[in-house]
Amino acid sequence: MELYFNKVAVIGVGLIGASVALSLREKGLCGTITGCGRKEENLRRARQRNIIDDYLLDAADAAAGADLVVLCTPVGILKDMAAETAPALKRGALVTDVGSIKGLMVGEIEELMPDGVHFVGSHPIAGSEKAGIDDARGSLFVGARCIITPTWRSDRAAVERIVLLWQAIGGSVELMDPFRHDEIFSLVSHMPHVIAYALVNAVESIDPECIKYSGAGFRDTTRIAASSPELWRDICMMNRDNLSKVLKLFRENLDRIEKCMAENDWAAVEREFARAQKLRMSI
């Protein structure tokens, strides 16, 4: 199956969007790359760095004539961007995203696509708490897991091309139901971010000056609390039900450890820690 795109439109040129553009360019998978975003200065810098060839501030204009459209905006506006670009998409265009929320939204975006245009959801597990183009690189997805979330309506050929796309830029691809995706990532991604924010806030509530004594353990544990509050607000909002369930389970685990400490049951505390250690070491 041929995998080459004469024109690619990247809607949202941040760390992930810029890295997608660089990956496609370095692998020779595309002709021109048009960027679109909210801040013209960022787009200008992306062009100067040869991440994109040109840019437009209007998403529909940027997507017009594109063979591949990659939606890399915050998940809170992802559906809006899909709706904005849809009327301008040419027949045969392929559309994907990089968002960490799928669930209902995948089907909703599918319904927005005009005849002959196919959307397939993607979630590359790559990146960091940093969000700008300064940290973008073409190797970002090498060895990274990438979840593809087709539905019963998905075009088989379109799904195959999206799988090949992520594999071509180094990703390890797995297909998953969109709702199962959100259940899993509420546990291993969304909950840890909420907890990291809460940990830092706990220090701030007691004595902000204590933060300067942070060692590697605290810095590693709370690294993701440097992530965009806007982005993670939207993720919490869109995956609220799953996240509420796992946070409840987290509280139960925390309460169990606290209860053991209150009862001076240090063997039980050690068992809790050992149970966690065993699973953590399996990663």
Keywords:
283 residues; 6-phosphogluconate dehydrogenase C-terminal fold; alpha/beta; 11 helices; elongated; Rossmann fold; eight-stranded mixed beta sheet; 8 strands
Write a structural description:
The protein is of the alpha/beta class and 283 residues long. It folds into two domains: 5-176, Rossmann fold, CATH 3.40.50; 180-280, 6-phosphogluconate dehydrogenase C-terminal like domain (6-phosphogluconate dehydrogenase C-terminal fold, Orthogonal Bundle). The protein is built from eleven helices and eight strands. It has helices spanning 15-26, 40-48, 59-63, 78-85, 103-112, 156-168, 178-206, 216-222, 229-238, 240-262, 266-280, and strands spanning 5-11, 30-36, 54-55, 68-71, 94-97, 118-124, 145-149, 172-175. An eight-stranded mixed sheet has the order 3-2-1-4-5-6-7-8, with helices on both faces. Helix 1 links the parallel strand 1 and strand 2 (30-36). The longest helix is centred in the C-terminal third of the chain and has 29 residues, at 178-206. The chain is elongated, with a radius of gyration of 21 Å. The model has no long low-confidence stretch (mean pLDDT 95).
